[in-house]
Amino acid sequence: MKPSEHRVVLAGNGGWENRGCEAIEVSVRSIIDAVVGPVFFTIIPFGEGDREITDDASERLAPLDWRVPPLSAERIVRSMNARGLIPSHRHWAFRRPFARLDGLFSLETPLVQIGGDNFTVDYGNPDRFFALNDYALRRGSPVVLWGASIGPFSSDRSYEQYAAMQLRRVSLILARESMTVEYLASIGVTSNVRTAMDPAFTLEEVEPREGVRSLVDGSPVGLNVSPLFGRYTGEPADALSDEVKRLAESIVTHTRRPVLFLPHVMTPGQDDHEWHSAQAEELLARLPSDTVRITPRDLSAQELKWCASRCSVVIGSRTHLTIASISSAVPTISLGYSAKARGINYEVFGHERYVVPAKEFSAESVAEILKDVLEHEADIRHTLQSRQETLRSSATLAGREFAGCVGWDMPAVEARPKS
After folding, report:
1. Strand 355-357's sheet: what is its strand order?
2. Taking the alpha carbons of 50, 53, 54, 56 in that order, is the dihedral positive or negative?
3. Distance between CA atoms of 144 and 183, rounded to whole angstroms?
4. What are the pLDDT digits (tens) for 363-393?
5. What is the pLDDT of residues 308-332, one digit of tens each?
6. Considering 96, 125, 223, 275, which has the largest number of Cβ atoms within 10 A of its Cβ?
7. What is the rounded distance in angstroms from the CA atom of residue 32 to the CA atom of residue 403?
8. Which domains does the chain have, with CATH numbers?
9. For residues 141 and 100, what is the distance between their CA atoms, to the nearest angstrom?
10. Strand ranges in 28-85 using DSSP code E only, listed in sequence order
């Protein structure tokens, strides 16, 4: 097969209103193109309106319709699943949307699932993602989980056994942290597992328009505490918002640096920009002008990375915002609501001292860590700078693992991924 004839199906990712999803897709495509040459991508976004059609001749969209008829077997099974009346792992109940994909898959068309935490329980059991794997495997396609955090499913022994069986069927799992590798080994999934850092560690920054560039004057402290994070703190939204404002005010008062809010997800119902804009407005009513700033909602993932890279420190709950700052050698405090924050920090630093678990979040707890980070800012930057090549190489190596898995020829040395 000539390189120009390569086909890949990318699935499981959300829309680009979530800049983390954008960062994943842009990075994976760049890595694959760099390793094997030009590739034609079919994008299967999960969710309505998740991904807009572009003029890019190297891609096409195949959106799925998840609606089911009211009296169908699928509807009944899903309803019983939701009520806990039957085990949730009935992936045939999620197959109907895949009928429109007939013809996309063959022995030569790999399916790459790129949603980083789809195979966890952060958003419920991953039945529809296992269903898509099953659909592709039954058609003889290789299936690759790329940049994945997986599990743990240990709270439901039956589901864990089912998940282990399904994961052993997958052609290749590119796990983004050792915690995932260790968990997979504990459930007997080892032979198809490789470690590779999240693909977004290779994302290139892009300088934004002139009016945006001034937002980073004075080396601000970047801040993102998403509405999603509130689900895991156990605090009502109003209480969490008040805590965010207290934290921002503390930063301005004690560090003498501006705060730059960095919204990273603009999805309806989980809109960081709407959330942080309201907080910024209230703060500016009592703080000096220009001490509280917010990036525009239309910045791309690459432009937001540029902004994060100019901050003195970034405090973030959105995983791919923290990856943007860490991969720019910016000291970063991760507000963690799942194992992925802990796992990524452990891979980068070898410890979790810069992680604040959701249940321990408060203005005081973050301010205490921020004080320590600022005191050791130069040392932390040096550590991160020394790790950049290793982190990037690990993320890029995934492309060669992928190409080898699906049997594609590779040049002797791949080009640097372009973004």
Report:
1. 292-294, 259-261, 221-224, 313-316, 332-336, 355-357
2. positive
3. 18
4. 999 999 999 999 999 999 999 999 999 999 9
5. 999 999 999 999 999 999 999 999 9
6. 223
7. 8
8. 3-203+391-406 (3.40.50.2000), 210-386 (3.40.50.2000)
9. 16
10. 39-44, 59-61
The token duo for 36 is 């094997």
Token pair of 144, please?
């690759």
The span from the CA of 228 to the CA of 30, in Å, is 29
Asked whether residue 174 carries a pLDDT value surpassing 70, the answer given is: yes
| Inter-CA distances, 415 with 46, 302, 305, 319, 396, Å | 30, 20, 22, 27, 10
d(C-alpha 168, C-alpha 170), whole Å: 6
DSSP-assigned beta bridge partners for residue 3: none
139 and 105 in contact (C-beta within 8 Å)?
yes
Average pLDDT on 265-269 reads 89
Predicted confidence (pLDDT) per residue in 63-107, tens digit: 565 555 566 666 666 666 656 555 555 555 566 667 777 777 666
SS3 61: strand
Between CA 13 and CA 64 the distance in angstroms is: 12
Residues ≥6 apart with Cβ < 8 Å to 308 = 222, 262, 314, 321, 324, 325, 328, 330
Q: What is the DSSP letter of 328?
A: T
Distances (CA, A) of 88 to 57, 82, 84, 183: 39, 8, 8, 21
CA distance 135 to 254: 55
Backbone phi, psi, residue 230, to 5°: -65, -25
Q: What are phi and psi of 163, to 5 degrees?
A: -60, -45
| CA atoms of 277 and 409, how far apart (whole Å) | 49
Phi/psi of residue 236, nearest 5 degrees? -60, 160
Distance between CA 393 and CA 399 in Å, rounded?
10
